[in-house]
Design brief:
single chain, 89 residues, mainly alpha
């Protein structure tokens, strides 16, 4: 299950995004880090979490943005669908 929200910037280059596609890294992310993200999905991700995501996607040579990284609307929609399908409690 996936949801995509159309945005005015729909179709822009995903390479500009600080994180790889959530469908790649979310299933590999450790449970405690998943729970941390699910507790506050709109909060900025800790630098350690961003580094772990980049490691999982073999992109750990990329710098972690100093301004903080937040999940966008589509990524939060992915998590909503994932938690519903996985019956996360």
């Amino acid at each position: 299950m996936s949801s995509v929200i159309d945005r005015p910037d729909h179709g822009t280059d995903r390479a500009a995004r600080p994180l790889p596609s959530i469908g790649v890294w979310w299933p590999m992310l450790e449970g405690p880090l998943q729970r941390e993200i699910l507790e506050h999905p709109t909060a900025p991700l800790r630098a350690a979490v961003v580094r772990r995501i980049l490691e999982l996607c073999e992109q750990d040579d990329r710098p972690v943005p100093r301004s903080g990284v937040r999940l966008d609307e589509n990524e939060r929609a992915y998590l909503a669908g994932w938690t519903h399908a996985a019956d996360w409690t």
